[in-house]
Each structure stands twice: as structure tokens, then as C-alpha cells.
Amino acid sequence: MKRNVRRHKTGFGYIGSGNSLNVFNRKPHRPFSELKYKLNSESLKLLQTEFDSEELTDAQRAQIKENVRKSTKGKSIKIAIVTFIFILLFIIIAIEMLNGVLNID
Questions:
Q1: For the chain, what percent of residues have pLDDT higher than 70?
Q2: For residues 24 and 8, is the Cβ–Cβ distance under 8 A?
Q3: Phi, psi (deg, nearest 5) at residue 102
Q4: What is the pLDDT of residues 72-82, one digit of tens each?
Q5: Number of CB atoms found within 10 A of residue 10's CB
Q6: Taking the model in full, what pTM does it have?
Q7: What is the per-residue pLDDT for 102?
Q8: Which residues lie below 8 Å from residue 30, measured CB to CB, with a gap of 6+?
Q9: Where would I find the beta strands (DSSP E) of the chain?
Q10: How far apart are the C-alpha atoms of 1 and 22, rounded to whole Å?
Q11: How close are the terminal C-alpha atoms of the chain, in Å?
Q12: Distance in angstroms (rounded) separating the CA atoms of residues 63 and 28
């Protein structure tokens, strides 16, 4: 079996680490990888939760879809109304400013 060797030549340019061979040839370890694994495994042990994964009937699926559609439609209508009001206010302010500039007496 061939050993996985990570050796690079340093004959090109300055890389910011003094072109030291140990920069190129060290093993790429993630920082705290072992600690992260231990933390994850311990938290999974402590936070075991039970989930109900029942199959939904077609009527329940249809009801859920209808509820989602109603809520998104209501939000869309509210956003459209607020946008229309802001555009209308912007137009009114622009007209008033133009009337103020053009009416020099």
C-alpha cells in the first residue's frame, strides 16, 4: 500500500510563510475536529426526541396546502397594498415638488 504523501516543492515565489517546507508538507487537520465530534455526539445523546411520523391522508394534505395558499395570498395582498400606497405618496410628493419649482412668481 502506498502511503499518501503530500509533498510540494517550494521553488516558486514567496507565499507569506517564509517558504518553509513544513507549511506545505503538514497534514491538513481541521481545528477542533475531535472536540466538535464529541460535542455533537454528546448533544445527540442528551436531546433524543420522539417524532410522530404518521402518514397523512389526502384530505389532510389538501387542508395543509389550502392553509399555506391562504396565508401566502394574504401576505401578497398586504405587500401589494403597502407598495401601492408608497408609490402613490412618492408620486404626490414629486408632483408637489415640481409645482413648487415651476411656480416661480
A1: 61
A2: yes
A3: -80, -25
A4: 999 999 999 99
A5: 15
A6: 0.41
A7: 73
A8: 36
A9: none
A10: 24
A11: 95
A12: 52
With cell 419649482, the residue in question is 101
Residues 6+ apart with CB under 8 A from 27: 6
CA–CA dist 9, 24 (Å, integer): 8
Round to whole Å and give the CA distance between 16 and 24: 12
Instruction: Calculate the CA dihedral of residues 16, 22, 24, 28 and round it to 10 degrees.
Output: -110
Identify the three-state secondary structure at position 1: coil
Give the other-Cβ count within 10 Å of 23's Cβ: 13
DSSP secondary structure letter of residue 13: S
Q: Which three cell numbers stand for residue 78?
A: 398586504
* Cell reading at 19: 517558504
CB 24 within 8 A of CB 10: yes
Q: How far is CA 57 from CA 29, 54, 61, 64, in A?
A: 49, 9, 6, 11
Cell output for 1: 500500500
Total count of residues recorded for the chain: 105
